[in-house]
Fold:
Amino acid sequence: MNSIELSWADQYFSSFSHRKDPYSLRDIQRVLQLVDNVHQKIPCIHVAGTNGKGSVCALLTNIFGHHGHKVGTYTSPHILTVRERIRLQGEPISEEKIKKLVERYESYFKGLSYFEVLTLCGFLFFYEEKVDIAIIETGLGGRLDATNVITPLVSVITSISMDHKQHLGDTLENIAFEKAGIIKKQVPVVTSVTQENIVKILEEKSKAENSAFYRLCEDFSYEMSFHRYPKKNDLFYNGITRNFEFQDLSLWNTYQPQNFSCVLAVLEVLWDHYQFEEKLIQKSIKDFFWPARFQMMQENPLIIFDVAHNPGGILELVDSLKKFFSWGKLYFLLGISADKDWGSMLKMCEGLSSHIGVACYEDTRSWSVESLPSHYSRFVNLKEGFDFFCKNLKHHDILCVTGSFHTISEVQRKSLQCKSIF
Structure:
């Protein structure tokens, strides 16, 4: 989808408000009752966290799909089209099918927010398609998130860091409390959180709900070979009751091994019910792909797209570059949302590079860059910055485009026609 023209679905859903004040489950629960509570008739896995949720959902989708299951996946935000949020067998819902959903159920949308309408459409679509399992990602937080009406087979909580402070609270403990809201009575919990103060909050909630609790570095762990690019890497998973070894992975970042391990722990929890096969898990890990997560769009010179959109994400991106890559010159191009800690994000990039460009993306949520310090390069728009850096790239240089989902979307739409090399 290289055209910047919006599809029918993108235009239609953009008419709904992104704001919900106050946040509440009341409206989505009311509407779901009117459609026979279809969400309660779908086996599902619920995934919350600050970073890594989408990757966990994508890999779970891949694994269940390889085992012959019909899989629905609900994630957010999207990169190129809103249809990416509702997937069947990993593929976005078609324009035709989402149009039919709207025609059939539009009368129920009144009073719902953008995210609530899409959540409702996801549940309805998965029910009508009779999926074997649905992988459901929270949008914001967990406790009051519109997806938090389900009772899943497993609750998954990925890494937790500072983000959405205006909605979730200004401490990690407050944010963890909101994420822990997805934990349900006697539903197992798997988490990749390692900070002891945050683990304590999740563990206490799990105990209160009489839910088994499995945590990274305690109940399961991983080791990685850390070969530098382009040499491929090996991943060793030491699990709750099982161990796996994955060789020759195109894996050169610090955060996906955590996500992979979280997924493997989920499989262990569900093993007796689904009878997973190691050879199919191996295949799923090998061909795993989730766009704009350390995605290599071009090599020699290397262009990397990554949707890191908060300090936690940028920290992992910078750490990945340090641990796995060498370069002649490293360039960063960022477009950052106004509600993010842009100062911390830029300083992290500055620790690796003096070639940092910043531009607004084309949305009112973009940071205006008016207060950008003078030692950074300011561009009129992202396309100008991308084109400028591309003209200066030499064979051993790296350009990393990051800062927001909106940034990746805009650069892909307007500047880059090539496909990922992996």
Notes: Residues 54 and 324 are 23 Å apart (CA to CA). The chain has two domains: 8-286, 295-414. The domain at 8-286 is CATH 3.40.1190.10 (UDP-N-acetylmuramoyl-L-alanine:D-glutamate ligase).
